[in-house]
Amino acid sequence: MPLSNDPCLQRFGIEEEYFITDLRSRRMVAEPSAWVLDACREAIGQGFAYELLQGQIEVASPIFDSAAQATAYLSRVRRDLNQTLAEHGLGVICSGSHPLAEWKAQRITVQSHYQQLLGEYEIVARRSVVCGLHVHAEIPSGVDRVAVMNEVLPWLPMLLALSVSSPFWQGQLTGYFSYRQVACDEWPRMGVPEYLPDDQAFEHYLALLHQTRAADKEVDVWWGCRPSLRYPTLELRMTDACPRLIDALMLASLYRVMVKHACLLPAPGSHYRPESHWMLKENRIQARRWGPYGRFVLLPDTTPMSLAQWLDRAQQTFAATARILGEDGVFDQARQILQVGTSAERQVRCFDRPHTSALVRRQAVVDLLLEESAEG
Hints:
Blueprint: E1 12-22, H1 34-44, E2 48-50, E3 56-60, H2 67-86, E4 90-93, H3 112-121, H4 123-126, E5 133-138, H5 145-152, H6 156-163, E6 168-169, E7 172-173, H7 179-184, E8 190-191, H8 199-211, E9 222-223, E10 225-227, E11 233-236, H9 245-264, H10 274-290, H11 307-324, H12 330-340, H13 343-351, H14 358-374
Parallel strand pairs: 8-9
Antiparallel strand pairs: 1-3, 1-4, 1-5, 2-3, 5-11, 6-7, 10-11
Helix pairs in contact: 1-2, 2-9, 5-9, 6-9, 6-10, 9-12, 11-12, 13-14
């Protein structure tokens, strides 16, 4: 499909990752049978993909022109997947971590790509029991993708803070709203991208890694935002998977508004400098630790602000582009998350119910996530 330079269009795609979960024990399924995976493939259709661990699956959407298309597609996928798995006593959880998953019990998928990752990264791969929300936003031909990336990078901890859904790890509360982002830092070339000025520098970076055999040029850069090596897109990877589909769709819309805004600028990324890079790292630390309660700093203003204030700043910056794309309501949708609580907050509230055992409370959190993940 040819690239689009239409100023009123921002095509995109969404990838969601799911934990297959036993409805009786509420635990992540370590080794789903072949017929369960076949049932998942049939329910999802062409977008089905295996994941690193056998108990995880992924849906990779087609190309969308609008949020309405994304809503219809992912609602159908979640509905059909849950209905199909319920016949086998199973369901899916779409969240950054699973409250009752233990990494030592999981099994790596037998496909050669994942076995290669296991051989290279060993315990880091085995411990990667996490799910993310990935959004691909198309970049028009002639626009430097790394320059666009540099324009949107400072805003990404805001998206992470809205998405946080992984307060549990190994069945324990971690004190982090996104422990997934902590686990991600065990991998090389994940997290905040290297400081690069443009596409040419990115190509040089990849060539150097390939030349020194430090990484496979095709697969081993997993930054929280990266130029895709397969598609003409800029891929968001920092955000946690979202149990509520409405939250995932809001984040996808807000990201594509940011990317479109950058693409329309005469010189995107021109204000990104080393200080911006430093603050990006610090804001990500705030977002993964405190979620919506973090204190964030944007240059050149060095006054810490709340997530609500940051959303106000985003609306001032991106409102005109949001209107162009028909996404005027995306900022109010984001504020609704602050009103009802992020997924991490809802999980902690559910777990904090008194007078029951820790196991029963963790099971209640799984039930909450199963219910929210099934809603279209």
